[in-house]
Amino acid sequence: METNNKLIVNNKTMENILEEIKQERFEQNAKWGEQNHNLVEWIAILSEEVGEASKEAVDFHFKNPYKNAHGERQEVLENDVVQQLRLKDYRMELIQVCAVAVQMIESLERNELSNKQ
Known about the structure:
This protein is 64% helix and 3% strand. It is mostly helical. Helix 1 (14-32) crosses helix 3 and helix 2 (39-62) packs antiparallel against helix 3 (79-110). It is globular and about 60 Å long.
């Protein structure tokens, strides 16, 4: 039996999603440089990112008003438009969560798990 290693999720292959995560990692490096935090700091950073994804999920579920990047309510938008924006924002937050998790593993391997004497 032949297996197909290309998983398709809403017309996106896993490879495409992983490429987005990789691109987000590059953007993080461009913005912050190489990060070498301790384990507790990394968990705090990851938790903050997960919190942002959680907020988008809660706002989607309860159909809260959409706010722009400046925190201003966007009352004129139709509810279905708002919900689609929320899903896109939620997805982007999940990409950021994954990119931070990758960065955590990179840091762990560079530091705590390296063969330094």
